[in-house]
Specification:
The protein contains seven helices and no strands. It is mostly helical.
């Protein structure tokens, strides 16, 4: 019997840009436990499965392959991506942060120019 849970867990984790280690920390588990879940060697307890479903804003039915309706609020994804971007930016050198700020200004200017040329 092929279980869909390992595939869906990995897909959801990767969609949010999380590593196994990051997910494990959020769930208070070890990275190897997440690896076991994702390769089908272990299944989470019902309590952990519920926590995983809530974390990814989906249902146990989706995780277990009972249904194919994946319910994800866009707000949660945006917040997660925003947090990741902030972390990435904070890890840059001050010079790279300044360069990034200038590049963002350039992109805003270019977008404004393109928008004005459409009028």
């Amino acid at each position: 019997m092929i279980f869909i849970f390992p595939y869906r867990l990995k897909q959801l984790r990767e969609n949010l840009g999380l590593t196994q280690e990051e997910l494990a920390k959020q769930l208070n588990l070890t990275q190897s436990t997440i690896a076991y879940y994702e390769n089908g060697r272990k299944m989470p307890t019902l309590e952990n499965a519920k926590i995983i479903a809530q974390m990814f804003n989906t249902s146990l039915d989706y995780l277990l392959g009972i249904c194919n309706n994946q319910i994800i609020e866009k707000e949660n994804i945006i917040i997660t991506l925003y947090d990741k971007l902030l972390e990435d930016i904070s890890n840059l050198s001050p010079k790279s942060q300044q360069d990034l700020e200038h590049f963002i200004d350039f992109l805003k200017f270019r977008d404004m120019q393109m928008e004005n040329s459409k009028k």
